Amino acid sequence: MKKKILANIIVSFFVSIPVIALSEDITIVNCTGPDDCDLSKLVSMGNNFQGWLIGIVAVLAAIAFSWTGIRALLYPGSVDVKKETTANIKRIAIGLAIFLLAFTVVEIIVKELVNEDTNALRFLKE
Question: Does residue 34 belong to any structural domain of this protein?
């Protein structure tokens, strides 16, 4: 039990260092005051949140893959653990693929709806 706790602390420490180091550059809300906020700042905030969310999901997927791999290495002879780790790797990969596919579909839809020259919606009269 103590080994699991120590392993979790060590993994958490090494995973959290880059996240903490990069957190200073990440700003989700970039309004300086109530007069400064407009629709472009709202869209910018949405893009910042999207980038932050992708980073968090990538870190969580990396942790899940690592933990599953560690379990596979710690119990190489156990058939049950092998089945469980194989199923977990498939689940993690499918979840990550669904997340990234959803992100890609939304990006494609937004690029088709927004006019690149004016940054306005195509169906609105400019």
Answer: yes
**106 inside domain:** yes
94 has a pLDDT exceeding 80: yes
Using one digit for the tens of pLDDT, what is the confidence trace for 27-69? 666 677 767 777 667 777 777 777 778 888 888 888 888 888 8
HEC string of the chain equals CHHHHHHHHHHHHHHHHHHHHHHCCCCCCCCCCCCCCCHHHHHHHHHHHHHHHHHHHHHHHHHHHHHHHHHHHHCCCCHHHHHHHHHHHHHHHHHHHHHHHHHHHHHHHHHHHECCCCCCECCCCC
- By residue range, what is the domain housing residue 103? 2-113
Task: Indicate whether 125 belongs to any domain.
Answer: no
Q: How remote is the C-alpha of 94 from its chain's centroid?
A: 14
User: Does any domain span residue 68?
Assistant: yes
Number of domains in the chain: 1
- Taking each helix axis from N to C end, the angle separating 39-74 and 79-113, rounded to the nearest 10 degrees, works out to 160
Its pTM surpasses 0.85: no
